[in-house]
Design goal:
about 70 residues; mainly alpha
Length: about 70
């Protein structure tokens, strides 16, 4: 039977995996999109970057709670 600790660890791992996947998607899009640059993003690039930032913030907030 799973414990609260193992459930929390699973959620943390899932959040980390989603955070890393969003980072990779953002990098991949930026590398191939002619409409994106470091200072400006196309509509898709903006959405990908917003997803990445949201997940990064959630992950870092979760890490701070562990300390």
């Amino acid at each position: 039977m799973p414990t609260a600790t193992s459930d929390s660890a699973a959620v943390a791992e899932d959040l980390y995996a989603r955070y890393m996947k969003a980072a990779a998607a953002c990098r991949a899009h930026g590398a191939t999109c002619s409409g994106c640059s470091p200072g400006a993003r196309c509509e898709t690039g903006q959405r990908l970057e917003a997803d990445f930032v949201r997940l990064q913030d959630a992950y870092l907030k979760q890490q701070k709670k562990k300390r």
